[in-house]
């Protein structure tokens, strides 16, 4: 049955016109308007850029915990990533901020495009919806590291039977955002021990080298800083931590859900199930979850639904969760439910799910076998 003209027009507006207008505003419009405090100002990247400049001079880039307590979830003014992020982005610190922000914006756009392409998505409508969703829009326009994490997850899956590519990709992703550490469990459960070792060595190596530049003795205050940050931001987030808090209850829930999820994933003959469970739980159980974190659903939807399906449209539900300055108790349940339903819809027994394309997922082997020893 052919599509109706009205439906075709609606798809063009949603999947082409709307994303195109936003992309123009986020790139050319931002460069021409010179609005330093506007929504499209890559504001989250400014603390990273500033930390890179400080790192080049061997100076401490972190705020004091009391400064974070005064911050109370407003737009970020302080650097709160790991020290390796300051080291890796230190070359940007040598550039004018406008140039650095333009480069990170283009890199973010390329990361989303590259992730979808690596996972076999050739349906232009999926690209359009990805860029029209608030998760990707905020991830790119705020200048966050999330698009780079999306690319790392896509590379880890696409090159999973290698050892270096997934190991380095996940090592970089984990050291940038610690909440992705459960992906190491995916490597270990599937007996990719060399890749797991490379990921751990990459992360630890970057930590030691980066802190050596500032002074290893200064690293002792970092855990306190992270606990303070979680205390300030978790209640305003969109994950399970907003419901149970960032303390011991969240850790207990993390252990329980990961154990259950891995058990379910191991019983499946399709490795995508385990991968999807681990990535989704990493996202949901992060001590801090903002709307742009849900861009990590993009590679999971690409694995299961490389062509347009209702699951993709559920990403628009995150328009309801925008705004991190105030806490609304309904935001986290909406975000969690939308992601869970989207994944379940994508994983249902459709022709794409039963017979994934070779480009998208490759040959799916049983979990007990491995190409590595």
Structural notes for this entry:
It is a single chain. The C terminus is likely disordered. The protein has one domain. By secondary structure, the chain is an all-alpha fold. 64% of the residues lie in helices and 0% in strands. The chain is globular, with a radius of gyration of 20 Å. The longest helix is centred in the N-terminal third of the chain and has 29 residues. Helix 6 runs parallel beside helix 9.
Summarize the structure.
By secondary structure, the protein is mainly α. The chain is built from 21 helices and no strands. 64% of the residues lie in helices and 0% in strands.
Descriptors:
single chain; 373 residues; 21 helices
Secondary structure layout plus pairing:
Elements: H1 5-33, H2 45-56, H3 65-71, H4 83-88, H5 90-93, H6 97-118, H7 124-132, H8 134-141, H9 146-158, H10 164-176, H11 183-189, H12 193-214, H13 222-233, H14 241-244, H15 248-267, H16 271-284, H17 297-304, H18 310-313, H19 331-347, H20 351-354, H21 358-361
Rough outline: globular
Distance between the termini: 50 Å
Query: Would you report the number of β strands?
Result: 0
- Helix % is 55-70%
What is the mean predicted local confidence, pLDDT?
85
- Given as residue ranges, the uncertain stretches (5+ residues, pLDDT < 50) are 36-40, 351-373
Beta-strand percent range: under 5%
Structural class: mainly alpha
What is the CA-atom radius of gyration, in angstroms? 20 Å
Order of helices and strands: HHHHHHHHHHHHHHHHHHHHH
Number of helical stretches of at least 4 residues: 21
Any idea how many domains? Answer: 1
* Major beta-sheet overview: none
């Amino acid at each position: 049955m052919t599509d109706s003209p009205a439906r075709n027009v609606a798809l063009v507006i949603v999947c082409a016109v709307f994303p195109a207008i936003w992309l123009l505003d986020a790139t050319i419009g931002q460069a021409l308007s010179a609005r330093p405090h506007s929504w499209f100002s890559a504001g989250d990247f400014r603390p990273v850029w500033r930390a890179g400049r400080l790192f080049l001079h061997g100076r401490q880039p972190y705020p004091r915990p009391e400064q974070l307590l005064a911050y109370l979830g407003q737009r970020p003014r302080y650097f709160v990533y790991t020290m390796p992020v300051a080291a890796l982005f230190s070359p940007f610190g040598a550039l004018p901020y406008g140039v650095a922000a333009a480069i990170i914006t283009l890199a973010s756009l390329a990361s989303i495009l590259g992730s979808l392409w690596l996972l076999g998505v050739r349906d232009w409508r999926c690209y359009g919806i990805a860029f029209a969703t608030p998760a990707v829009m905020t991830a790119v326009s705020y200048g966050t590291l999330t698009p780079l994490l999306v690319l790392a997850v896509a590379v880890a899956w696409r090159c999973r039977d290698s050892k270096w590519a997934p190991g380095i990709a996940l090592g970089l992703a984990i050291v940038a955002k610690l909440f992705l550490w459960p992906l190491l469990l995916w490597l270990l459960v599937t007996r990719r021990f060399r890749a797991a070792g490379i990921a751990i060595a990459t992360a630890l190596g970057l930590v030691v080298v980066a802190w050596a530049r500032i002074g290893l003795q200064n690293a002792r205050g970092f855990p306190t800083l992270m606990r303070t940050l979680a205390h300030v931001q978790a209640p305003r987030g969109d994950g399970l931590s907003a419901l149970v808090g960032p303390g011991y209850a969240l850790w207990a829930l993390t252990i329980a859900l990961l154990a259950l999820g891995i058990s379910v994933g191991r019983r499946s003959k399709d490795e995508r199930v385990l991968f999807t469970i681990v990535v989704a739980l990493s996202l949901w159980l992060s001590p801090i979850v903002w709307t742009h974190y849900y861009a990590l659903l993009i590679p999971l939807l690409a694995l299961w639904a490389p062509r347009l399906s209702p699951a993709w449209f559920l990403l628009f539900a995150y328009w309801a969760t925008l705004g991190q300055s105030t806490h609304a108790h309904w935001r986290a349940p909406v975000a969690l439910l939308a992601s869970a339903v989207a994944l379940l819809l994508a994983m249902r027994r459709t022709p794409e799910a039963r017979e994934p394309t070779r480009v998208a997922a490759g040959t799916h082997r049983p979990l007990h076998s491995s190409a590595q020893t």
